[in-house]
Design goal:
globular, four-stranded antiparallel sheet, seven-stranded mixed sheet
């Protein structure tokens, strides 16, 4: 079992930055791939970025490449999403999720989800 709690969301002006954190509990956290997803009002949940369990591989959606960075420092049960150059279209509820032994690029493969944190970018 993995429990996930996101934090770090808030209101920021366009061009600003935020860093989201996802604190995980569970003894086998280090063996799970981790992902960030977002859902805007009236839209489906979409993939943002993911990082492999070893932190050796990352992947980001085209819409955030060059602006968002996912990381999971060693020996910490936390995954981060550094978001720079934020745009109004980045406004959404952001969720972190975990999956073990899965295709970590597929949203449907993720087993555990946090409650989400709101990010609002004003123009």
């Amino acid at each position: 079992q993995v429990q996930l709690v996101e934090s770090g969301g808030g209101l920021v002006q366009a061009g600003g930055s935020l860093r989201l954190s996802c604190a995980a509990s569970g003894r086998t956290f280090s063996r799970y791939h981790m992902g960030w997803f977002r859902q805007a009002p009236g839209k489906e949940r979409e993939f943002v970025a993911a990082i492999s369990w070893s932190a050796g591989y990352t992947y980001s959606a085209d819409s955030v490449k060059g602006r968002f960075t996912i990381s999971r420092p060693n020996a910490k049960n936390t995954v981060y999403l550094q978001m720079n150059s934020l745009k109004p279209e980045d406004t959404a509820v952001y969720y972190c999720a975990a999956c073990g032994g899965c295709n970590w690029l597929l949203t449907s493969e993720y087993e555990y989800w946090g409650q989400g944190t709101q990010v609002t970018v004003s123009s």
